[in-house]
Amino acid sequence: MKVRRQVASLEPLILEQLRGLEGEDWHRAPTGKWSVAQIVSHLGMATDRVALAFESDADATSADRRATPRQQLLRHLLLSAGKLPRPRRIPEGTYPVERPDPELIEAAYRMSVERLAALVETWPQERQENTYFRHSVLGDLNLPEWVRYFVVKGRHYAHQIEVRRRWLTASR
């Protein structure tokens, strides 16, 4: 039940931050920072990448978890304390383009969350807990752990969107 509530919180966490954002504001950002459109695009691509990986593994048997002691510690800290480690690099296939289309990225984000929610709804709990997909920093995560990761990541990026919006207001 907890995982269902967490996955249900993902859409409003991000999309409520986008209300009232118009035109060029989607694409403006301080130098060296992502725009709001790029943030939402990245979140959608990352969520979709994980959901697709689990879907493609739907017929596979469960695997043993692979993680170094450092990854186990980082996983524990992130999932329990809710703090993101500094990324070394953005995973392939999740780096946003310069000016993503706001309507398309919103729709893509919604669909990626729906895809993740469908896995939570249709997979038995044992399957969710015993099928893993690798995170570059945290090691193998199961489906409930990925959902928790996206909640933590979503909170981080919701804050970043809020910061961008304050910057937009101040820079006018």
Describe the structure.
The protein has one domain (2-170): Four Helix Bundle (Hemerythrin (Met), subunit A), CATH 1.20.120.450. The protein has six helices and two strands; from the N terminus they run αααααββα. It is mainly alpha-helical and 172 residues long. A hairpin with a 3-residue loop joins β1 and β2. The chain has helices at residues 2-15, 36-56, 69-81, 102-122, 125-130, 143-170; strands at residues 132-135, 139-142.
Concise account of the structure shown:
This protein has 172 residues and is mainly α. The protein has six helices and two strands, in the order H-H-H-H-H-E-E-H.
Q: What would you call the structural class?
A: mainly alpha
Q: What is the total number of structural domains?
A: 1
Strand order of the largest sheet: 1-2
**What is the class in the CATH system?**
Mainly Alpha
| Count of helical regions | 6
CATH fold call: Four Helix Bundle (Hemerythrin (Met), subunit A)
CATH superfamily heading: dinb family like domain
Parts with pLDDT < 50 across at least 5 consecutive residues: none
Rg calculated over all Cα atoms: 16 Å
Average pLDDT, all residues: 90
Pattern of helices and strands: HHHHHEEH
Strand tally: 2
* CATH architecture identity: Up-down Bundle
Strand content: under 5%
Tell me the distance between the termini: 45 Å
Shape: globular
Q: What level of helicity do the residues show?
A: 55-70%
| Largest sheet descriptor | 2 strands, antiparallel
